[in-house]
Specification:
Layout (H helix, E strand, L loop, with lengths): L1 H26 L4 E17 L2 E16 L17 H30 L6 E4 L4 H4 L7 E5 L2 E2 L3 H10 L5 E7 L2 E7 L2 E3 L4 E3 L2 E3 L7 H27 L11 H15 L4 H24 L6 H14 L5 H31 L1
Helix pairs in contact: 1-2, 1-6, 1-7, 2-5, 2-7, 2-8, 4-5, 5-7, 6-7, 6-9
Length: about 350
């Protein structure tokens, strides 16, 4: 069941990403040769207004094939004949649509289960928050230079800054106070803690669901960027990265653990995973790396600045190297997933 659910979730996310490219390409008058759901051999296809719409046999995402052939430069619908800003909008649309999907799902989920406002539910004795005078009911508004909107941001800030002294601003009524906290190590878990727990979830109306939907997406983007920073700086190892096999395992485990609580909990948990995955895909695709949307955007912005296109063959070589490196990384991550799950 985990494999089926993972395929459905991931396919929908990738489809939505490609839909962004497709809609902006059509908006800018760019020829779209094919828009397909899935990969591999074609199961069904139909042409409409110059675009072939198809369903492929492997339900693992989709693709949007635009007219980018440099040999067809006489075609007004060729991608490369459009203005640089039109091309930038088309390439950026994929990741942006991932964030839009994350916001839609996050707003729906917040409407279903509520939101975790950054309010102290309990303040533990013997920990720095209590010693600094923070009380239950106080609202945490800032940690370091970071504004806090949901309680999970408090937890993730502490996770990314384990053991580091932090300046915390909190509000009690109409008064704001700032204190400096030095996290204390919990000897049992080995984790540095501030000693603040959440009040739980607060019911949301339509407006607050949308407001906290934005905060949730922002939180997930921050988590992804923070995790990448820890990966680059060596604070976490490459063996902790997860790929498709790892995602299937997480989806399957989530389903098995939540199904005994009923369909509502299953739906909420799977939606939460989908929000995480689509926000993560949006961030990863915007990284300025060859073969990714972010890498293509780098070349387009360079073209916009110098008002001259980078030679296509040179750009092609860079993206080819990027594809090879991505394939190597995917094999490495898949190997780690299999080793972690089955051995």
């Amino acid at each position: 069941m985990g494999i089926i659910l993972a395929i459905i979730i991931f396919s929908f996310i990738v489809f939505f990403h490609e839909l962004g490219h497709f809609l902006l390409a059509k908006k800018n008058g760019i020829d779209v040769q094919e828009f397909a759901i899935g990969m591999g051999p074609t199961l069904y296809a139909r042409e409409y207004k110059g675009t072939r719409y198809g369903i492929r046999v492997l339900p693992i995402g989709g693709f949007c094939a635009m007219g980018e052939d440099d040999e067809a430069t006489d075609s007004p619908g060729n991608f490369n004949n459009k203005s640089v800003w039109a091309r930038i909008s088309v390439i950026a649309a994929g990741p942006i649509f991932n964030f839009i999907l994350a916001f839609i799902l996050a707003s729906i989920l917040t409407g279903m289960v509520g939101y975790d406002k950054p309010e102290a539910g309990a303040v533990e004795e013997g920990y720095p928050a209590k010693e600094a005078g923070i009380q239950a009911g106080d609202t945490i508004v800032k940690m370091g230079e970071k504004r806090i909107h949901i309680f999970r941001e408090i937890s993730i800030y502490n996770q990314f800054h384990q053991g580091e002294e932090v300046e915390v601003t909190y509000r009690r009524g109409n008064d704001e106070k700032t204190v400096v906290l030095q996290p204390k190590k919990d000897e049992e878990s080995g984790y540095y803690r501030l000693g603040i727990s959440s009040t739980g979830y607060t019911k949301a109306n339509v407006l607050t669901a949308m407001q906290y939907g934005v905060y949730k997406v922002k939180y997930l983007i921050d988590v992804t960027l923070g995790s990448l920073k820890m990966l680059v700086t060596g604070q976490v190892g490459m063996d902790q990265m997860a790929g498709p096999v790892g995602i299937v395992d997480v989806v399957g485990s989530t389903y098995e653990q939540s199904k005994s609580y009923g369909s509502f909990v299953v739906l909420a948990e799977l939606m939460n995973l989908a929000i995480l995955l689509t926000a993560n895909l949006g961030v990863m695709n915007l990284l300025p790396l060859p073969a990714l949307d972010g890498g293509r955007l780098v070349f387009l912005f360079v073209e916009a600045i110098r008002r001259k296109r980078v030679p296509p063959e040179k750009e092609g070589y860079v993206h080819l190297v990027g594809i090879v490196l991505l394939m190597v990384l995917m094999v490495f991550v898949m190997y780690n997933d299999i080793r972690r799950i089955f051995f």
